[in-house]
Write a structure and sequence with these properties.
3 helices, 40% helix
């Protein structure tokens, strides 16, 4: 028999704004709300594709990267997109760090 739980209150259903900057260990990732045109530019898309967000790895110091989230999404969709792109960021930065360690050894 499944446990019966109380429905979430309004306080629990309310989501906050996305962070503007996230620290991942030694890495710093900026979070930017962007237009569809900006997303296409970052993605180098000439075919007018539609994107909810993207991850850009930067090689020139801090920040180490940037997560772009489409500004017209609902708050819930912004968070879903943020976590999707955060996964890309963690995977990319971890792989890049491992490559540097292999070179240094």
């Amino acid at each position: 028999m499944a446990a019966i739980t109380k429905p979430a209150t309004k306080k629990h259903r309310r989501l906050k704004r996305l962070p503007r900057r996230v620290k991942l260990g030694p890495y710093v990732v900026d979070v930017v709300l962007a237009s569809q045109a900006t997303l296409r530019e970052v993605m180098d898309d000439d075919e007018q594709g539609l994107y909810n967000g993207c991850w850009e790895h930067l090689d020139d110091g801090k920040p180490d990267g940037r997560i772009y989230v489409l500004e017209t999404l609902s708050v819930l969709e912004k968070w879903r997109t943020f976590w999707h792109e955060m996964h890309h960021a963690v995977t990319d930065l971890e792989g890049w760090d491992l490559t540097l360690r292999q070179v240094d050894v």
